[in-house]
Specification:
alpha/beta, Rossmann fold, 2 domains, 6-stranded parallel beta sheet, 6 strands, about 40% helix, disordered N terminus, binds magnesium ion
């Protein structure tokens, strides 16, 4: 009879040193044309518009990446690890493909990926999304859902019947984040809106928080998903809100407004 070693029961200490701030790669984030002075005063008037990024804010993208792992013939763990390394190095997520399948043209698999993914489904929604949007609308906030997505995702998002006032994808807006045109086109969806009237809620520092602030919007950094956990803010940047979930957002905004 062979002896077996019991699995270790030592508690795992969460990593604390994963911030990008010590890395040269942070330069990739600060290369954006960004003026820290453009950040709105957190003590100023509360926003009346709350705009949400889509991926990893509303939609848990686990299925997206799991299907890519399946198509490339690697485990979800391996895919996630390589994606995390790409994020920390400041690379685009597409950098994972040459690492995992150097001899494969991954773009040839896009149609098959889409067939297996089948678009957004209720199961992809983070569980705190629906109640947050409902509460915000009840409180009188204008709710906008807008992120870097192909136009076909707008219909899929509408089919989820989420409380909202406007939905727009980057393809429909004619501009992708982090371009300023994305934010100005999004603001134009709302009647008589100015950038400072809106709070943008996003999971990425480079694609959401910094460019939204540079465009004059209020910002909420939602620290969930791969980017939300791995990225960090440059030292000289403050955001209006930093949250780990959407549950508290309606209350915080109501308090900010002075309700
Ligand atoms: Mg996102």
């Amino acid at each position: 009879m062979s002896e077996t070693t019991p699995p270790t029961t030592e508690p795992v200490t969460p990593p604390t040193g994963t911030a990008l701030e010590d890395r040269d790669d942070l330069e990739d984030l600060t290369e954006l044309d960004f003026d820290p002075a453009a950040i709105p005063d957190p003590d100023g008037p509360a926003p009346r518009i709350v705009a949400f990024d889509i991926g990893e804010v509303l939609i848990d993208e686990s299925r997206v990446w799991g299907i890519w792992a399946e198509l490339l013939g690697v485990s979800p763990l391996t895919f996630a690890a390589v994606l995390g390394a790409a994020i920390v190095q400041g690379d685009d997520h597409r950098a994972v493909f040459p690492h995992l399948a150097p001899n494969v043209d991954w773009e040839e698999f896009e149609d098959e990926h889409e067939r297996r993914y089948g678009g957004f489904h209720e199961v992809d929604l983070y569980p705190d999304v629906r109640s947050c949007l409902e509460e915000l609308q009840q409180l009188g906030f204008v709710v906008v859902l807008a992120g870097n997505q192909p136009a076909r995702r707008a219909a899929q998002l509408r089919a989820l019947d989420l409380p909202h006032d406007h939905i727009a994808t980057s393809e429909e807006l004619g501009s992708d984040k982090p371009e300023p045109g994305f934010f100005s086109a999004m603001i134009d969806l709302v009647e008589r809106a100015r950038p400072q009237d809106a709070l943008y809620v996003g999971d990425r520092v480079d694609n959401d928080v910094l460019p939204a602030a540079a465009a004059g919007l209020r910002t909420c950094w939602l620290r969930r998903g791969p980017w939300g956990h791995l990225q960090d803010l440059p030292d000289d940047v403050e955001v209006d809100l930093v949250l780990e979930g959407l549950g508290e957002l309606p209350l915080l905004l109501a308090q900010w407004r002075g309700d």
